[in-house]
């Protein structure tokens, strides 16, 4: 296998996506001598950090762990300005990576993949773009992202709106002028919170339409001077060796000892310390019982509610913004800085829509079920994504016998370790359902692990003279059963959220992310490779 010439339409491997996973996957394949072509609908690299350029978009993993850890030179060649940098800086970093590794020439940008059909007779994939180009490859690898299929058409009448309507995941590159404008934001999850707290002092008047209240964790975001950069650079080896083995792929992990064996004072101190850390530490390093035990969940949840009440003060705001019917951490936990205080501003109005939901968008603005119309100049939809599966089901992917991945997943969302799907030979996936990378992981930790596993698998096939690999039904059944057994023992599956696909009408209900832990998942993947990929049909 050798690199194809630039005009070739036939490759050993095609990679969909030029984000964190896609860049590293293409780099590895090229270095191993596979011919590879990457595709992305964007005009440049970045993946989620290209598209999500809305006001306030930031990391919620510390910058020094949201990193590629295969190269010390690459790691130390970049310096971050602060602990949780914003989108413009992150996009610059992604471009630094692409340039440092000389990856642009391997990609075709502004290209949307329309279909990918497997040819059983040849053991190869035919990949077509929306522009009508076709390409051929032996192995198709999706690095299309777990949060890359935005839910943009959510309300009747959106096309009639006379003002400016923007989905956060398709934010324009040209600046949006908020001055003196009546602005509405629909959605108060992690993205909505970032937008709301960032634009509140820039708009004429802001209306926030709140349906489901969210727990929050405060973000502490110190700037880095030379000493700060040197300090995290010095941790390269520690982080490289530690992150892949923790529960969440972050630098912290759960402390020893079970929750109930600690005194009330010890538990309180642990929560206070993790809260003060100013990241996702309260969620991912307080106790594993948070995910499984209702008493532990309630204790941590009440701790967060108390912190929120201290800041909100107003009983009406507390009722609308503080959750009481689900536990802290069973939804995605947003980081914030000054978000709750936004609602004390005279130019901000909270519009509760749980009991009086949004009925439609009208030319003047947003109409509620009771007929009330909120007039707006700008309507921002922070309405989320068809997570995990959406990026793939929006492509016409057909496997053996012409079976459709969209149809299969409409019945039951299943994968084998989130890396392959039975019935689709030579198709590999990253950030897909039933792996930690679908939600519960520091993304770079998990995506590096998955792309490295895929590369090693292709090397194994090449060395053994085989050209086709497919997960067997038996292996997939075993993985789905293991995934569900762990998931169903948690409180997460008892809560409606995008983690469960609840935000998409008709989507089969299953926890999208493997919740057994990043370190455990990695070990199981390593065992699969060490077995010679037992459970995969290879020929």
Describe this structure in words.
By secondary structure, the protein is an alpha/beta fold. The chain has a domain of 293 residues: FAD/NAD(P)-binding domain (3-Layer(bba) Sandwich), CATH 3.50.50. The chain is 31% helix and 16% strand. The chain contains 16 helices and 20 strands. The strands form five sheets. Strands 1, 2, 3, 4, 5, 6, 17 and 18 form an eight-stranded mixed beta sheet that branches. α1 packs parallel to α14 and α14 packs parallel to α16. The chain is globular, with a radius of gyration of 23 Å. The relative contact order is 0.14. The mean pLDDT is 96.
Mean pLDDT comes to 96
In CATH terms, the superfamily of the domain at 10-149 and 386-538 is FAD/NAD(P)-binding domain
Range of helix content: 25-40%
Q: Round the Cα radius of gyration to an integer and report it.
A: 23 Å
Determine the number of helices (DSSP H or I, runs of at least 4 residues).
16
Structural class label: alpha/beta
Instruction: Determine the strand fraction and express it as a percent band.
Output: 15-25%
Low-confidence stretches: none
State the end-to-end distance.
Answer: 17 Å
- Looking at the structure, the CATH topology of the domain at 10-149 and 386-538 is FAD/NAD(P)-binding domain
Number of strands: 20
Overall geometry comes to: globular
The CATH class designation of the domain at 10-149 and 386-538 is: Alpha Beta
Examine the secondary-structure arrangement and name the CATH architecture of the domain at 10-149 and 386-538: 3-Layer(bba) Sandwich
Q: Note the main sheet.
A: 8 strands, mixed
């Amino acid at each position: 296998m050798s690199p194809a010439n630039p005009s070739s339409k036939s490759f050993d491997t095609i990679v969909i996506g030029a984000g964190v996973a896609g860049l590293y996957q293409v780099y590895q394949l090229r270095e191993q001598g596979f011919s590879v072509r990457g595709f992305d609908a964007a005009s440049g690299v970045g993946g989620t950090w290209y598209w999500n350029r809305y006001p306030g978009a930031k990391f919620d993993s510390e910058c020094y762990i949201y990193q590629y850890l295969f190269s010390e030179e690459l790691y130390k060649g970049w310096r971050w300005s602060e602990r949780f940098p914003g989108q413009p800086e992150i996009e610059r970093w992604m471009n630094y990576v692409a340039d440092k590794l000389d990856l642009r020439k391997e990609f075709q940008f502004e290209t949307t993949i329309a279909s990918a059909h497997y040819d059983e007779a040849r053991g190869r994939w035919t990949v077509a773009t929306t522009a009508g180009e076709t390409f051929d490859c032996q192995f198709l690898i999706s690095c299309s992202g777990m949060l890359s299929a935005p839910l943009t058409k959510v309300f009747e009448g959106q096309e009639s709106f006379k003002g400016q309507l923007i989905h956060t995941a398709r934010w324009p590159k040209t600046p949006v002028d908020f001055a003196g404008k009546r602005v509405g934001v629909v959605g108060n999850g992690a993205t909505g919170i970032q937008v709301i707290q960032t634009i509140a002092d820039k708009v004429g008047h802001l209306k926030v339409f709140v349906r489901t209240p969210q727990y929050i964790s405060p973000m502490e975001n110190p700037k880095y001077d030379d000493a700060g950069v040197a300090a995290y650079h010095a941790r390269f080896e520690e982080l490289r060796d530690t992150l892949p083995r923790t529960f969440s792929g972050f630098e912290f992990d759960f402390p020893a000892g079970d929750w109930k064996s600690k005194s009330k004072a010890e538990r309180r101190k642990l929560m206070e310390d993790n809260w003060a850390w100013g990241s996702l530490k309260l969620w991912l390093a307080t106790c594993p019982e948070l995910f499984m035990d209702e008493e532990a969940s309630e204790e941590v949840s009440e701790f967060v509610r108390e912190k929120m009440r201290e800041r909100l003060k107003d009983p009406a705001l507390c009722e609308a913004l503080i959750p009481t019917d689900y536990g802290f951490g069973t939804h995605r936990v947003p980081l914030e800085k000054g978000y709750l205080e936004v609602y004390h501003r005279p130019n901000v109005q909270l519009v509760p829509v749980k009991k009086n939901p949004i009925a439609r968008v009208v030319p003047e603005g947003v109409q509620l079920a009771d007929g009330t119309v909120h007039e707006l100049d700008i309507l921002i939809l922070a309405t989320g994504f068809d997570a995990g599966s959406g990026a793939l089901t929006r492509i016409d992917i057909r496997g053996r016998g012409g079976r459709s991945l969209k149809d299969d997943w409409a019945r039951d969302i299943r994968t084998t370790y989130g890396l392959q799907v039975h019935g689709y030979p030579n198709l590999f996936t990253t950030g897909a359902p039933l792996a930690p990378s679908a939600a519960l992981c520091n993304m770079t930790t998990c995506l590096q692990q998955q792309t490295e596993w895929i590369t090693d698998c292709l090397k194994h096939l090449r060395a053994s003279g085989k050209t086709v690999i497919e997960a067997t039904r038996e292996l997939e059944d075993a993985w789905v059963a293991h995934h569900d057994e762990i998931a169903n023992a948690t409180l997460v599956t008892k809560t409606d959220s995008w983690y469960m696909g609840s935000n998409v009408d008709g989507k089969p209900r299953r926890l999208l992310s493997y919740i057994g832990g990043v370190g455990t998942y990695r070990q199981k993947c390593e065992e699969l490779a060490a077995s010679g990929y037992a459970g995969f049909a290879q020929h």
